[in-house]
Each structure stands twice: as structure tokens, then as C-alpha cells.
């Protein structure tokens, strides 16, 4: 027993040494990667002065932008041969958290100023964000609207399975704002982590209704039926876009934001159901 | 000659990292070669570092109020209840399934065995989607559950248990099946030649023989169920008190309140360590 105790003690000491060694190692490597990113950044900003863009531009965008940004990404690649646009679509709050956590990205497009503020407050943005579209809420119901939902109040009917976005996600915050403004109380069956997850539950007919964006209803085609409600006017979301400070491909990031704000980009977005800023 | 009981214990030990009792000690004094020691320590440090970071960054001063909030206890209770129920469900159907795979011979057994292990390697979110398509309100089987019995599983606590069972049961089946294969079937054969039915032989001979394997498998399954995230959020959704288990709460808290996420993580870490420590003692005295 004592022998094994002594052995454990020695093992622990060795472990401690190993941990210290690894800590030192990780400290080194993190400073290495930071300087590496810096040099990459300066390199690409040099290339930005020349019109030729290349490499990958990484765009973190709100889930509701999925269809329109995918289209714009393809156009961008066509316009600038040799570039590649990769997207990360998720809830804006999750994206903001990963950006402040050090995820390498060039552009961040959020579905609300509040989630954008997480990134700007952490000083991860290069410059001030610009609002590029707005989006209004709509109720998504099953095809044919079997539960005859015609207003926001109808959604609060007991027995109806409704999913909302989580309150931290812009669509959830907006839905809550609309409900509060009309003094309605709604207990959903689930708080989903992004707007597409909420929409999917209706598409799969697991939920009877979801409060999502007009653009999502439009993108879902005939898999859901949209019901507009006047209270949504009280909760219109501004979508800000910004280039990130540590953008590995700053030149392409600028060009992508320019495309989103160009008349051509705006046309793609309004066709998807977004409102002009 | 190793007795079958020892063999089954050995299988359980492999799964749980055991035993110390029969190890030959004379090798340790000769020193460990450096090419083995350095990567071994690096590997160990790699596994421990995140846990240490969790402790270093823990908001110790605000921890009491973080942990006494109703939401934390709600999520923890839900997690414990669901993981335990999922383990119980896995035991009820998993042990017979393991017996079937280990003790009977039927065409396509290898394929069945591979299918049983599929959820082990399947991404849990895919499992959740599959469960929705099978047991959802509009699913292949789920629509009949709904129209005949009025049972809908998505967005309910039962749905959480189903999702966790789906992901965790293979751990139990594999563990028990391995133990069964290592156990000597001659004891059961002797029992049947003495007049016991095959079920009596299973109950009186096999079951006690493979108990260590069942215990090991249960703990693995329970731990897997406790940490289950992807299938749960996909199949059962996220609602506090009903389907929001600890991992879901940690994930969502991380977006807006990292301190709360760390506090929740510490609770899960403590629960895991407690279970590991508690069961380890029992196994060592049991064998």
C-alpha cells in the first residue's frame, strides 16, 4: 500500500512536470501563430492594393443569410477567379462567441446589432459595422395552415406546438420583443439554437408553427406556409456586416462586403425577401 | 489456467482501466525509456490540461450564486434522471441483445453486430435526425404512435431518454458481449445438462458471471448518456426543465455567459469524477 502510494506520488510529480512543459509549449505556439497571422494580414493587405484577389475568404454569417449569401459567394468567385468563399452559417450569438474566441474569419454578418456588439466590444472588428439589410419576422406554419393560424395571438393557443429561437439568438430576441409589445405570453416546446433549426422543426412537421424571418419562409418554398403579423413591424432586425481585425484575407474581405452592399448584391438580398436598410 | 471468472473480470478491467492486483512489479524499477516517457507525458498533459484550465478559469468567487440558481439544478436533475433512465432502458434490452450476439448463431450475425455498433461511430446529430424521421410526430413509426396512442416523443423528457438510449446502448452491448465471449460457456452447458432451462442457466449462471462486464458497460453508457448533446438537441429540442440537459445548458450559456458555462461544466466534471471514483472502489472490492 505504502509502496503504491509512493509510486503515485512520484507519478504525480512527473505529471506536474509534463503539464508545465506543455504549458510552456502552448505559450510558445500561441505567440507563434499570432505573429504568423500578423504577417499573413500584412501580406494580404499589400495584395489588396493590387486589384488581383486570391485565396480563401471566410465569411461567418447569420443562419438566415444562408441562401442569399451562398448565391453571392458564387458570384464573388466568378468575378474574382482564384478566390474561394467559405461560409459558416449559424446563430449570430454562436458566431460572435467563436470570433471573440479566436476563430479565423474575414467577414462577420450578424442578424442583430446586439450580437455584432459582442464582436465590436471585444475589439475584433476592423472599423464600424454597416447595416446592409433588414429582416422582418413571420410565422411559419404547416402547409395548408391546418391550425388556422392568422395572427400572433393564434400562435399562443394551448395545444399548439410552437418553436422559437433561443432568446440569445436574434430571431428569438425579436420574437420575444414582438410578443412583449403585444402583451402575449407564449410557452414554446423548444428554444432552438438558430433560425434554420426552428424552421426545420416545422418543415419536418414536428412543430405546428415557428416564429422565423420572412426570408426563411420564402426560402423554404412550399414546405411551410407563411403568416404575416402586424406586430412584426415592432421587431425588425438590422443586419450589420463588418470586416474582422484579424482577417487573414483582408483584401478579399473588403471586396466581399462591397459586393454585398452593391446594387447587384442588394438585388439578390431583396429577391430573397430582405428589406432595404 | 485462468478461470472463466477471472477472464470476465479481465474484460471488465480492460474497459475500466483496471486492475493493479496481478501486475508484475519488477519492470518499473528498471526505468522507462525516454522515447516512451516523453510522448506518454505529453499525452497525459494534453488530456489533463483542459481540465486544469477549467479549474484555473473558474469564477470561484461567484460560483456559489451561479450554482445555487434554479436553472442549474433543474438541468442537473434532468440530466441525472434521463441518463439513469437511459441506462436502465439499455440494460433491459441491451443485455439480452448482447447475449443473442454472443451465444447464438444465426445468419447475418456479423452484420447485426456491426449495425448495433453503428451509433458508436455515427455523429450524434445524424442520430437525432434519424430518430426524428423514425419516431417524430410525422416519422415512419412515430405517426402511428401519435395516431394510435397519442404519444409524441420530440420535445418531451421521454424524447431525451430515447435519444440518450440510442447513443449510449451500444457501449453497454459491446461491453457485455465482450464479457460473455470471454466467459466459459461450459458452466451454462453443465447447468443445462443438469436440467436447468436455458433461461434459468442465463439467470443463475451467466448473469452473475458477467456482472463486472455489465457494471462496466452501464457506467460507460451512463457517462455517454450524461454527456449526450447532438442527438438530444436535434430530437428533443431545448426547453429548460423539460429537455434542456446540462450539456445543452453549457453550450447555450457559453454564447452569452461564459462564467455560467464554466460553472456548469465544473458541476458535470465533479459528477463524472464522483461516479468514476465511487464505482472504482466497488469494482475493486467486488473482484
Automatic annotation (TrEMBL), chain A:
Stored Gene3D superfamilies: Periplasmic binding protein-like II (3.40.190.10)
Ligand binding (molybdate): 64, 92, 195, 213
Keyword annotations from UniProtKB, A to Z: Metal-binding, Molybdenum, Signal
Pfam family, one: SBP_bac_11
GO biological process, alphabetically ordered: molybdate ion transport
Signal sequence bounds: 1-34
A molecular-function term among this protein's GO annotations: metal ion binding
The family this protein is said to belong to: Belongs to the bacterial solute-binding protein ModA family.
NCBIfam families: modA
Record-given protein name: Molybdate ABC transporter substrate-binding protein
Gene (UniProt): modA
